[in-house]
Design goal:
Order of helices and strands: HHHH
Oligomer: single chain
Number of strands: 0
Shape: globular
Distance between the termini: 39 Å
Structural class: mainly alpha
Radius of gyration: 14 Å
Largest sheet: none
Number of helices: 4
Strand content: under 5%
């Protein structure tokens, strides 16, 4: 039982993180993007910026700092 949970955890995490990033509206409040503790987490806003041509790359699957670092 525990082995099945551990084996499927990466897929469940991927679904939990990707579903809120694709609906076309922001789930998180405005302060989320400005807070020092949460501004590095990729949100719908960051995801949409990548798809509108503002960036030439998208390294930030979960974290925005990858795009700045790379």
């Amino acid at each position: 039982m525990l082995g099945e949970i551990a084996a499927t955890q990466p897929q469940r995490w991927s679904i939990i993180r990707n579903v809120p990033g694709h609906p076309g509206f922001e789930f998180f409040p405005r302060w989320w993007l400005d807070s020092p503790l949460t501004r590095w987490v990729n949100t719908t806003t960051h995801h949409d910026l990548h798809h509108n041509g503002s960036f030439n790359h998208n390294y930030g699957l979960y974290f925005t700092w990858w795009d700045k670092w790379m």
